[in-house]
Amino acid sequence: MISIASRFTRETFDSHATVFRAGDPGDSAYLVESGQVEVLLELNGEFRQVDVMGPGAMFGEFALLDRLPRSGTVRALEPTVLMRIDRSFVDGLLQTTDPVIQYLMQLLLERIRNERSKKPGVAPPQGARVSPASAALHGLGFAEPTKVSSQLHSAAVRTLSLSRDLSEAIAGQQLELHYQPIIHLQTGRLAGYEALVRWRHPTQGLVRPDEFIPLAERTGLIHPIGRWVLGQALADWPELRLLCQSEETPFVSVNLSAPELSVEGVADSVLGRLEGAQVATGELRIELTETTVIGNLEPVTQVTQALCRAGVGIALDDFGTGYAGLSYLQDLPFSCLKIDRAFVSQMLTTDRSKHIVKLALELSRWMGMSTVAEGIEDEACARALTEAGCTYGQGYHFAKPMPLQALKDRFSR
What we know:
The chain is about 40% helix and about 25% strand. It contains 17 helices and 17 strands. The strands form three sheets. Strands 9-10-12-13-14-15-16-17 form an eight-stranded mixed beta barrel, surrounded by five helices. The longest helix has 22 residues, at about 220-245. By secondary structure, it is of the alpha/beta class.
């Protein structure tokens, strides 16, 4: 797999330095991070400035789609820092609905519309200023963000920036592991935890997991991030274990994504990490979402069966949200069913949610599985779930996800 860092490189140009010339291969686009560049178009034998671009502007992106040589020249007007976006990155996103692809395609459509509205092959008058849209007509491939949705442009810029920065997050010690306590409902005692990765960006603060985890999956960074999460959870486990109060076997849950499950030898890798950390297999739970199961049944079956045989617990996360058939519960060795917060949070106010929760609890009892209710926000909900026979509870009513030291401060005996 090509390193993400190799597809996003920051390049610095001195004042008047050339970024690329007309006729150069169109194998990359650029995002202006600081400074300014000018776009030069040869008209009637003379180079004329047709645009000036500053921070946040993207240029050269049309070449990533049409694969033609450059038709214009770009030069730095002052010391400038550019993020180079290689074609390999965009090729990897072509099958997604990533904001970057949406942005590029919208630019392409904009240019096609402009081209149809003008006569092809006619150069602008001598001395006339050429708009970015007109420059696109002559094959330059430059874009003005204000001509497309500002929201889409912002999303594309943020995705590109985060893709680059995420590749440095592990080495830069920007990742943190927070643990949300899981409580045994009958006794009210701390039984285990769910390990949740957090990214503390050096300039943007905490980046939401629902933003950077899908990005990590698309770029392949989920693999080093997943290895880091498991390693950190196992390293923290001796201290976490001491805080558990339940008479049952304590556990820590770690999520595995679809790309991770597709890697050959992932089960052996997990078991090897457990052995190296001297952690009993029964003290680790692997959580899989219904969506992961549905789209990757063969690797999921192989991995879960291997881990189950070794004693690792397997939990089906977000039950009821992924449209999985009940056959998956029969065919795969799940030991725990996690009821999604969407149902738990409304079980006291809507009959449908209440019936779904009760059905999930009955189903788990019939199949010999424990249950975890997610998203418990108040005592009334916790009491109702306890009376209904739910095994464990998780949610802000008990505790928010927190770093190891905060857990020690709160739960130390």
